[in-house]
Write a structure and sequence with these properties.
Number of strands: 10
Oligomer: single chain
Helix content: 40-55%
Largest sheet: 6 strands, parallel
Strand content: 5-15%
Order of helices and strands: HEHEHEHEHEHEHEHEHHEHEHHH
C-alpha cells in the first residue's frame, strides 16, 4: 500500500519536514498516517475517532472491510481521542485501556451566543433542522409529525438546511407533496456557516428526529449543541447520547421516534412562552459546556503530551 501515489506523496512530505505528531481523521486518513508511520521513526499517530463509519454501509462486504480497517487503525495508533462516550468506551476496550481519551465535539459557543443575543425577534412557529439528509437523519418522522403540528398550529413551518438532492431527499419531497405540506416544509439546501447561525437565531425550536439504528446510537452531532447555543429548545428522539444531555439539562423534550409524540412536544413549546424561555435558558447552559476554545485546549494538551513522550 505504501507504493500508492497518494500515500507515497504524503509520506514524502512528512519526511521532508519535522513534525511532533500526526493527528488523523476520518479512518482513511488514519490509515494513510499509520502507513507513513512505518516509514518514519518516532512520530506518534493520534487518531481522532468521530464515528463508526462502517455503520453507514448497508452492503455486507463493504461494511466488513471498513470495520476491519477502523479496528486496525484504532489498535495501531499511538493514541485515540474519541468524540463520543460510546466510541470512547469501545476504543478503551479495543486498546486495552491504553492511551484512550474522550474530548467531545465543540462549537463556537461565544460567536453563536453573540449573534443570537442580538436577535430581538424570533419566528415563533419556525422549526429548524440542520445536517445531512440521509436515512439516518429521521426526517421522514419530522415530516410526518408536521401533518399533526399544522392541524393545531397553521403558521408552523419546518425549514431543513442541508443537501437534499439525494435519493432520500427526493423520497422526502414526494412524501411532503403527498401530505400537502409543500408550503409548510421548506428545503433551503446548503448554506454557509454564518447563514446557518443567522437562521438558528431566528428560529424557535431545533429538532433531531433520529431513528433507532447503530449509526444514531453512537452519534454526537454538534448541531444539537449549536441549537442550544442559539437558545433553541430542542426536540430529540431518545436514541442518541445527546438525548441524555438534553434530558439531564432540561433543554427540551426527549421523545420516542413516533410522529404524534414528536408533534405534541413541539406544540407544547409553541403554546407556552414561559416554558420556551425556561427551555431556552437550559439549552444555552448545556451548550456552554462544549465551547470549542476550551475543548481545543484540552485536546492540544493531550497531543503535546503524547508528542513529548515520543521525543
Amino acid at each position: 500500500l505504501s507504493s500508492l501515489p497518494l500515500t507515497g506523496l504524503i509520506c514524502h512530505k512528512v519526511k521532508r519536514r519535522y513534525y511532533s505528531a500526526i493527528l488523523a481523521t476520518p479512518f482513511l486518513s488514519g490509515l494513510l498516517a499509520i502507513l507513513c508511520k512505518k516509514e518514519i521513526d518516532n512520530i506518534p499517530v493520534i487518531y481522532e475517532d468521530v464515528d463508526r463509519f462502517y455503520d453507514f454501509f448497508k452492503e455486507p462486504v463493504k461494511k466488513l472491510i471498513v470495520k476491519a480497517l477502523e479496528s486496525y487503525i484504532i489498535k495501531a495508533s499511538d493514541a485515540v481521542i474519541a468524540v463520543s462516550p460510546y466510541l470512547y468506551i469501545e476504543d478503551r476496550y479495543v486498546r486495552n485501556n491504553n492511551k484512550t481519551f474522550f474530548v467531545p465535539n465543540g462549537i463556537e459557543y461565544k460567536k453563536i451566543r453573540k449573534i443570537a443575543s442580538e436577535k430581538k425577534i424570533r419566528d415563533e412557529f419556525t422549526i429548524v433542522y440542520v445536517g445531512a439528509i440521509e436515512w439516518w437523519s429521521g426526517l421522514d418522522l419530522a415530516i410526518d409529525s408536521m401533518a399533526y403540528i399544522t392541524k393545531k398550529a397553521s403558521k408552523a413551518r419546518l425549514i431543513i438546511i442541508g443537501e437534499y438532492r439525494t435519493p432520500y431527499g427526493i423520497k422526502l419531497l414526494k412524501r411532503i407533496k403527498s401530505l400537502n405540506l409543500s408550503d409548510k416544509v421548506i428545503f433551503l439546501g446548503r448554506r454557509s456557516y454564518s447563514e446557518v447561525i443567522e437562521l438558528l437565531s431566528r428560529s424557535y425550536v431545533g429538532i433531531q428526529p433520529f431513528p433507532i439504528s447503530d449509526v444514531t446510537l453512537k452519534a454526537f452531532p454538534y448541531k444539537i449543541l449549536e441549537y442550544g447555543a442559539a437558545g433553541l429548545p430542542i426536540v430529540i428522539t431518545n436514541v442518541s447520547i445527546l438525548a441524555k444531555f438534553v434530558e439531564k439539562y432540561k433543554a427540551g423534550f426527549v421523545v420516542k421516534p413516533n410522529p404524534e409524540e414528536f408533534a405534541n412536544a413541539v406544540l407544547q413549546i409553541f403554546s407556552d412562552k414561559k416554558l420556551w424561555l425556561e427551555l431556552s435558558a437550559n439549552s444555552i447552559k448545556m451548550a456552554s459546556l462544549f465551547d470549542v476554545e476550551k475543548l481545543a485546549r484540552e485536546e492540544a494538551n493531550i497531543i503535546m503530551n503524547i508528542a513529548h513522550l515520543h521525543t
